[in-house]
Write a structure and sequence with these properties.
four-stranded antiparallel sheet; alpha/beta; seven-stranded mixed sheet; Aspartate Aminotransferase, domain 2; Aspartate Aminotransferase, domain 1; globular; 360 residues
């Protein structure tokens, strides 16, 4: 048995899970598709149209389009913004998902030019944007910034950055894969946040926990062009209704829970305060997620995580993210249904075991 197979088998035996909503079985995922769901035909009608209408209303935009993946969604809408302005440069944070995790598809497929702005270890500032001289096609802002532990700018600062982009003839696009978490952090409606942006991308499989899929919302004419790019890029599948139906179910189920997720995240951070070898970023959490820096080697961390699964039936992802210091690991904690089943004290005990490594 390979190491990966061993870990999968060990995970299946666990009964408690630190991250997100925990594992969901195929049967549970299929149960998010109501039996009476109306099918679509190549993206037209049925629950796909129902979902698009719901998202447009939720975000306060004239229109929305369902897309099979966020990669396709954001490439398509940025291409539309660029073509309309006759520009190619997209401004984004140095840790932008499109640049780091999508093999620069925006460049290889669409000829767009990515220009990182600011320092990778903190949020973009208005002063840093003001130093950009070339005319941009779009400013992309990720809310919240996942690689910074879920940090997001002050709401007034966010508005100022959006105004800067428009004053310079650029569109403002939100990578809102975690907008649901962001809204809880700001204490504002989704529409109030989305109003600062020309277009917004939202995901359904991440914080919402539905089947894969997403939407882009914005003006009617822009969304009409995004639909054409969906077809050109092979994303207009014959039947898209299973994912759309799942999204509708999970939106109704989980959207009301995000304020509670945030409250639990902050209680966890408070419980971790003062724990030797553990530091939370940001502290307190700004949304229902955080990063923890653990003073332990990757090998010892992995051993401790495996032992937690074997001895306590608690599953923690055994692979941490490395940092510049090999003796410090970075662990992301997204708070969801499974996390909320653990008390802050229990989470503190889990992290104490992890940072102790093989001696825990």
């Amino acid at each position: 048995m390979s190491d990966d197979e061993e870990l999968r088998a060990l995970r299946q035996k666990c009964t408690r899970f630190l991250h997100g909503h925990g594992p969901v079985s195929p049967a549970q995922m299929l149960a998010t598709i109501p039996a009476g769901s109306q099918t679509d035909t190549y993206g037209d009608g049925g629950v796909v149209g129902e979902l698009e209408t719901k998202i447009a209303g939720l975000l306060g935009k004239p229109a929305a389009v369902f897309m099979p993946s966020g990669t396709m969604a954001q490439q398509s809408v940025l291409r539309v913004h660029a073509d309309r302005r006759g520009r190619k440069t997209i401004l984004f944070h140095p840790m932008c998902h499109l640049d780091w995790h999508e093999e620069q598809g925006y460049q290889r497929l669409h000829g767009l030019i990515g220009r990182p702005v600011g320092d990778q270890n903190r949020l973009i500032t208005l002063d840093e944007l003001a130093k950009v001289a070339e005319p941009p096609a779009a400013l992309l802002i990720e809310l919240p910034q996942r690689d910074l532990g879920g940090q997001q700018p002050d709401f007034d600062d966010l508005g100022a950055q959006a105004r800067w982009a428009r004053d310079h003839g650029a569109a403002v696009h939100m990578d809102g894969a975690r907008l649901w978490e962001s809204a809880a952090g700001y204490g504002r409606s989704h529409a109030e946040i989305a109003a600062l942006f020309d277009t917004v991308y939202v995901s359904f499989y991440k914080g919402i926990g539905a089947l894969p899929g997403c939407c882009v919302a914005g003006p009617d004419d822009v969304i009409a062009e995004v639909r054409e790019w969906r077809r050109r890029m092979g994303g207009t599948l014959h039947g898209m209704w299973p994912s759309a139906a799942s999204a509708l179910t999970c939106l109704d189920l989980r959207l009301p829970r995000f304020p509670g997720y945030l409250e639990h995240a902050r209680a966890i951070a408070s419980a971790l305060s003062g724990l030797p070898g553990v530091r939370v970023i940001p502290d307190p959490p700004e949304v229902p997620m955080m990063h923890a820096l653990l003073e332990v080697t990757g090998e010892r961390y992995g051993q401790a995580a495996k032992r937690l699964a074997e001895e306590e039936a608690i599953w923690v992802q055994p692979k941490s993210a490395t940092t510049r210091d090999p003796a410090v690991q970075r662990v992301e904690l997204s708070v969801g249904d499974a996390t909320c089943e653990l008390t802050p004290g229990q989470v503190r005990d889990i992290f104490a075991r992890l940072v102790a490594g093989e001696d825990g």
